[in-house]
C-alpha cells in the first residue's frame, strides 16, 4: 500500500484512518510513554480487542460513554475502541471536579463512565459514585478485553455526531459541543499540513488528551506516520528528560508552554535545552509577538502558532516557511476548506472543521448566523495575504469613557518588558469612566516590583495612546490559569480586583 497523507485524510471515519495507517506502516511507533512503545499496528489490534470487551458490557453504536482520563496510552486505546464501535464519546478534562463532571454526565446522558481510580490524590471512582454516574469502570492501566469476531461492522460514515466536548465553563455551566469524525479529521488535517511535518519527526502531547487537541494530534500522527511522546503530568524541568530521551523534534501546546520552555532555556544560554527540537507549535491562547522573537532568538527553533477553539479545533495555523513578521503578528492562514467572514469586527467561521452545534438547541440557534457561520466572539481581521490577526474578544474590550480599548494590544506591549513574565489586562467597574484599565502582572522571582508609574512610563515610551494607559497595576505571584492549555482566567482576576482600592 502506498497512500499519501492526502488520501489518508479522505477516510470517512477515524477508525478508517487508523486502519489505513496500520496497514501502511504497522511496525512504526505511534505513542511513546516512558519505557513503553505502541505501534500503529498494535494500536489497531489492541483497540479492536478493547472494543470487543466494551461490546460485551453493553456498549453499542450510539451508546454515550463519558471518560475522564489522563494522557496515557490506555486513554488513546479506549478512545479508538469507542470509535471502532461507533459509540458517542464525551471526554472530560481530568482536573474537573463535581460541578463540571456532574453537569457533563447529566447533560450527555452518559450510560458508561470511565475513570482512572485514584489519580493525583483525587478519588475519581468515589466522585463518580457520589454523582450517581452509570456504568462506572476504571481504565487507568487495565482495559476491557474481548474477541473482535463478535463485533459489528465499523461505522460506515463520519458525519454522525460521535463526540461531545465541553467548553471550560469558567463563568457559567459548560456547553456540550457536538463533533463528528469528519470535523475532527478536518481539524487535524489542517494542523498536519500547515506544520509541514514528516515521518522522521517526533511529536509530544503534553496537554490533556481529553482536550479537543487530543484527536487533532492523533489525526496528524495517522496522516504522516510519526510518533508522539505522551506526558501524563507535564512540569518543567522534570519533563525535559523524556523530551531528550525520545529526541523530540516538535513540542508546544500553547503560549504558556512556550514561556516555560523559554524559562528553562534561559538557565543554560547557548546550549539547546532540547538538542533535537526544531519547532514549537500550538494555539489556544493569544501569543504576544515578543514571545515569538524570544523563542527564535534564544532557543534557536521555529515557532508557529495557530487559532482554534473547542467548537472548531483548528481554524488557522502558522506555516514554518512564512515570514517572521507573519509568524510573530498573525495566527496564520486557514486551510482551503475554512471560510472566514468578518462581521462588525467579529470573526465568523464556516467549514468542515466547525462543530454541528451544541447539546442545547437554543445555544446552537444563537451561535450560528443565517448563513451558517459560527459566531466566535473573537475580534480580528484578515490581511491582504490571507493571514488572520486576532485583536481580542468581544467580551475583552474595555470601554472607558465610551472609547473601546483592546486588552490584547496592551498585553502584547507588556510582554516585551524585561521584568514581566506574563500580563493580563482587564476592565474593572468605575463610576466615572464606566471601566478602568487594570494591568495584572506576573514577574520573574528576582525582578523589582513594577509600580503604576513604571508601567505607564514604559507603555508611553512604547507608543501606546494616552487614553489606553492603565489606571491600576496589580502584581501577582502567579496568574490564575486553567488546567488544559494554561489559559489565563480573566474572570478570576475580575473577581479578585473588582473591590475598590482602599
UniProtKB/TrEMBL annotation:
GO biological process: fatty acid metabolic process
Transmembrane domains' residue ranges: none
Family statement: Belongs to the ATP-dependent AMP-binding enzyme family.
One Pfam family of this chain: AMP-binding
Name by which UniProt lists this protein: Cyclohexanecarboxylate-CoA ligase
Domain AMP-dependent synthetase/ligase: 19-359
Gene3D superfamilies: 3.30.300.30, N-terminal domain of ligase-like
GO function terms (MF aspect): medium-chain fatty acid-CoA ligase activity
Keyword tags: Ligase
Superkingdom per UniProt: Bacteria
Residue stretches making up the AMP-binding enzyme C-terminal domain: 409-482
Amino acid at each position: 500500500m502506498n497512500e499519501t497523507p492526502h488520501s489518508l485524510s479522505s477516510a470517512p471515519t477515524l477508525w478508517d484512518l487508523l486502519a489505513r495507517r496500520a496497514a501502511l506502516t504497522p511496525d512504526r511507533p505511534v505513542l511513546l510513554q516512558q519505557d513503553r512503545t505502541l505501534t500503529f499496528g498494535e494500536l489497531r489490534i489492541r483497540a479492536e480487542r478493547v472494543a470487543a470487551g466494551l461490546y460485551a458490557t453493553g456498549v453499542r453504536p450510539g451508546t454515550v460513554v463519558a471518560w475522564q482520563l489522563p494522557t496515557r496510552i490506555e486513554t488513546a486505546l479506549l478512545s479508538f475502541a469507542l470509535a471502532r464501535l461507533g459509540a458517542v464519546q464525551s471526554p472530560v478534562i481530568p482536573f474537573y471536579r463535581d460541578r463540571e463532571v456532574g453537569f457533563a454526565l447529566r447533560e450527555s446522558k452518559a450510560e458508561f463512565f470511565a475513570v482512572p481510580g485514584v489519580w493525583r490524590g483525587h478519588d475519581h471512582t468515589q466522585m463518580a459514585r457520589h454523582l450517581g454516574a452509570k456504568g462506572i469502570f476504571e481504565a487507568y492501566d487495565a482495559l476491557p478485553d474481548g474477541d473482535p469476531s463478535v463485533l459489528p461492522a465499523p461505522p460506515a460514515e463520519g458525519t454522525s455526531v460521535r463526540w461531545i466536548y465541553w467548553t471550560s465553563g469558567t463563568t457559567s455551566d459548560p456547553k456540550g459541543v457536538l463533533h463528528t469524525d469528519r470535523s475532527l479529521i478536518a481539524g487535524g488535517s489542517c494542523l498536519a499540513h500547515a506544520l509541514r511535518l514528516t515521518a522522521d519527526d517526533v511529536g509530544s502531547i503534553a496537554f490533556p488528551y481529553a482536550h479537543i487537541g487530543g484527536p487533532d494530534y492523533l489525526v496528524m500522527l495517522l496522516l504522516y506516520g510519526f510518533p508522539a511522546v505522551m506526558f501524563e503530568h507535564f512540569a518543567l524541568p522534570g519533563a525535559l528528560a523524556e523530551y531528550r530521551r525520545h529526541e523530540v523534534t516538535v513540542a508546544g501546546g500553547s503560549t504558556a508552554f512556550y514561556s516555560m520552555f523559554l524559562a528553562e532555556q534561559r538557565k543554560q544560554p547557548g546550549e539547546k535545552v532540547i538538542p533535537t527540537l526544531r519547532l514549537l507549535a500550538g494555539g489556544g491562547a493569544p501569543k504576544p509577538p515578543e514571545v515569538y522573537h524570544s523563542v527564535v532568538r534564544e532557543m534557536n527553533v521555529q515557532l508557529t502558532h495557530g487559532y482554534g477553539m473547542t467548537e472548531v479545533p483548528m481554524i488557522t495555523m502558522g506555516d514554518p516557511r512564512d515570514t517572521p513578521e507573519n509568524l510573530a503578528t498573525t495566527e496564520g492562514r486557514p486551510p482551503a476548506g475554512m471560510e472566514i467572514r468578518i462581521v462588525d469586527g467579529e470573526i465568523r467561521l464556516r467549514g468542515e472543521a466547525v462543530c454541528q452545534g451544541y447539546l442545547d438547541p437554543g445555544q446552537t440557534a444563537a451561535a450560528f448566523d443565517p448563513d451558517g457561520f459560527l459566531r466566535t466572539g473573537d475580534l480580528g481581521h484578515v490581511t491582504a495575504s490571507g493571514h488572520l490577526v486576532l485583536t481580542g474578544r468581544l467580551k475583552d474590550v474595555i470601554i472607558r469613557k465610551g472609547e473601546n480599548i483592546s486588552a490584547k494590544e496592551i498585553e502584547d506591549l507588556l510582554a516585551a518588558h524585561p521584568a514581566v513574565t506574563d500580563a493580563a489586562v482587564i476592565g474593572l467597574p468605575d463610576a466615572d469612566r464606566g471601566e478602568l484599565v487594570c494591568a495584572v502582572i506576573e514577574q520573574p522571582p528576582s525582578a523589582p516590583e513594577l509600580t503604576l508609574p513604571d508601567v505607564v512610563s514604559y507603555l508611553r515610551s512604547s507608543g501606546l495612546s494616552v487614553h489606553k494607559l492603565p489606571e491600576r497595576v496589580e502584581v501577582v505571584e502567579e496568574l490564575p490559569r486553567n488546567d488544559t492549555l494554561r489559559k489565563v482566567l480573566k474572570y478570576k482576576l475580575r473577581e479578585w480586583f473588582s473591590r475598590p482600592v482602599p
